[in-house]
């Protein structure tokens, strides 16, 4: 039998110095919470609240639980049991009260939107009233209290301006057992509300309420909180991370999650899962404010997000107002099982999933090159509400039979020795000027290409087979800039992009050409590429 409920955790740090509080919040928001939300079959959401009633404990975390029985399975018990060293050290300095609640019933405002489906801007500051009553009279007492809440009290609360939802819960949960039963009600309100007004006072003064409290309740406890953080499966907390010393950096044993502290160096390297379970690795850095506008970068095939390193260094210096998101395209590290050929739709969906996992409401800009350029345009066409402007570089709006045949030939080379493919690929990509005058960049890129997962390349390159956005691009509503290296394809791609730039949307797109650069101008000539895009950004 399905039995939904909640995990309800109150916390009070024993230390209140600034460094420990930053450590506590950074650990909870970058490690503890996201780890649980990467188990969406158990925890579909998670929230942090801060008390507004001056009582202790000050901090509260609530996670919805799809079925309480999941909390008895090894997936969850091992998660709790296998704490990292940092988690053990941090939680050892915090008083924690962790409880399971069975959900008995709920009522919500018509058109109610769950917190996890709101943006951070919309959700911040929502009010939570938690009321706990101790029950007497056993099962009959539980029944009578629950009946009163659902049939009278909550319907009266619903008349209070700003009321959103009320839930009635029981603790201890049936999976725990226990004799001393409490009924806990959680009432959610908008930041601006009518608590304390006439409607609220009326709900607290009825004959039925008096009877219930006289006969079935021995004690009542009430707490008030405001929402200050909504978890996603992707760690994104840079603000407190920037206030920590270098020694407080953290890295998981598998290397998939790393936090880099420091005022000017704060960064999170982590991952979320794509819709098919594939890992999408990303790096978040730049402006540490969660409200900062975000620029994202989409890589070319066979590269990783380090291909943007030099450009990102320029961007961080020139535009300290921007938060910067880079991620590795599917196929860089692994493939889904069973293996499935990638498509541009799939690559656009991966980015949408990443933004949702990081709770990024809308990108200020998306910049992509080659396969990332095609992905960028596809993303703007499919999710125009998620991006303000795009820069699509060194790509074509449609594939050809000749290109598909070339990719098949390259797969054969990669399966024999991917380093051979890397060498010929970089020679094909890069401008002769780069190959002769910047050999260190050519070697860096060759090593990057050679590090690609071979099976990943085999299936991800198929996103560039048989696609055509010529007609679709005519309906583009997103402000767009096209950029190309003057030597890409010995000038052939310049002509191709000049040929289709006028077909984008109603007004067409501007095309900028980067001198002495080939297929990856942002890697070959980062300063010139920045000069081409900085006004547009």
TrEMBL record:
Signal peptide: none annotated. Residues 301-523 form the AB hydrolase-1 domain. It comes from the Eukaryota. InterPro entries: AB_hydrolase_1 (IPR000073), AB_hydrolase_fold (IPR029058), AB_hydrolase_sf (IPR050266). Pfam families: Abhydrolase_1. This is AB hydrolase-1 domain-containing protein. It comes from Podospora pseudopauciseta.
């Amino acid at each position: 039998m399905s039995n939904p409920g909640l995990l309800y955790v109150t916390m009070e740090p024993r230390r209140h110095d600034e460094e420990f509080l930053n450590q506590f919040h950074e650990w909870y928001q970058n490690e503890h919470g996201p780890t649980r939300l990467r188990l969406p079959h158990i925890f579909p959401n998670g929230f942090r609240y801060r008390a507004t009633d001056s009582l202790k404990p000050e901090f509260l975390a609530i996670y919805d639980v799809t079925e309480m029985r999941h909390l008895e399975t090894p997936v969850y018990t091992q998660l709790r049991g296998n704490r990292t060293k940092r988690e053990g050290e941090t939680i050892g300095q915090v008083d924690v009260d962790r409880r399971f609640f069975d959900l008995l019933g709920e009522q919500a405002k018509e058109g109610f939107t769950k917190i996890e489906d709101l943006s951070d801007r919309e959700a911040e500051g929502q009010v939570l009233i938690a009321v706990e009553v101790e029950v007497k009279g056993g099962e009959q007492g539980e029944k009578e209290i629950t009946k009163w809440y659902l049939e009278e009290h909550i319907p009266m609360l619903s008349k209070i301006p700003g009321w959103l939802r009320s839930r009635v819960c029981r603790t201890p949960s049936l999976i725990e057992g226990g004799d001393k039963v409490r009924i806990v009600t959680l009432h959610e309100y908008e930041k601006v509300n009518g608590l304390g007004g006439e409607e609220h006072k009326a709900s607290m003064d009825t004959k039925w309420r008096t009877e219930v409290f006289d006969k079935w309740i021995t004690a009542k406890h009430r707490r008030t909180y405001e929402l200050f953080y909504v978890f996603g499966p992707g760690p994104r907390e840079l603000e407190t991370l920037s206030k920590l010393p270098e020694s407080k950096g953290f890295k998981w044993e598998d290397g998939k999650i790393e936090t880099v502290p420091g005022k000017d160096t704060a960064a999170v390297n982590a991952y979320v899962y794509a819709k098919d379970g594939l890992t999408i690795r990303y790096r978040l850095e730049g402006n540490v404010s969660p409200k900062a506008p975000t620029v994202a970068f989409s890589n070319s095939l066979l590269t990783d997000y380090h291909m943007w390193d030099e450009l990102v260094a320029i961007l961080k210096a020139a535009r300290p107002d921007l938060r910067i998101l880079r991620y590795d395209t599917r196929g860089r590290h692994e493939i889904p099982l069973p293996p499935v050929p990638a498509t541009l739709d799939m690559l656009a969906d991966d980015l949408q999933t990443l933004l949702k996992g990081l709770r990024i409401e809308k990108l200020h800009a998306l910049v992509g090159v080659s396969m990332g350029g095609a992905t960028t345009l596809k993303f703007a066409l499919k999710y125009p509400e998620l991006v303000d402007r795009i820069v699509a570089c060194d790509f074509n709006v449609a594939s050809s039979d000749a290109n598909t045949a070339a990719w098949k030939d390259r797969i054969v080379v990669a399966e024999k020795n991917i380093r051979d493919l890397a060498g010929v690929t970089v020679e094909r990509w890069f401008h002769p000027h780069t190959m002769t005058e910047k050999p260190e960049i050519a070697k860096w890129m060759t090593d990057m290409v050679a590090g690609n997962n071979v099976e990943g390349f085999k299936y991800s390159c198929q996103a560039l087979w048989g696609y055509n956005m010529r007609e679709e691009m005519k309906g583009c509503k997103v402000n767009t800039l096209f950029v190309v290296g003057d030597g890409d394809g010995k000038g052939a791609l310049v002509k191709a992009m000049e040929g289709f730039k006028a077909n984008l949307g109603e007004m067409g797109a501007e095309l900028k050409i980067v001198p002495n650069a080939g297929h990856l101008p942002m890697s070959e000539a980062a300063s010139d590429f920045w000069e081409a895009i900085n006004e547009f950004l």
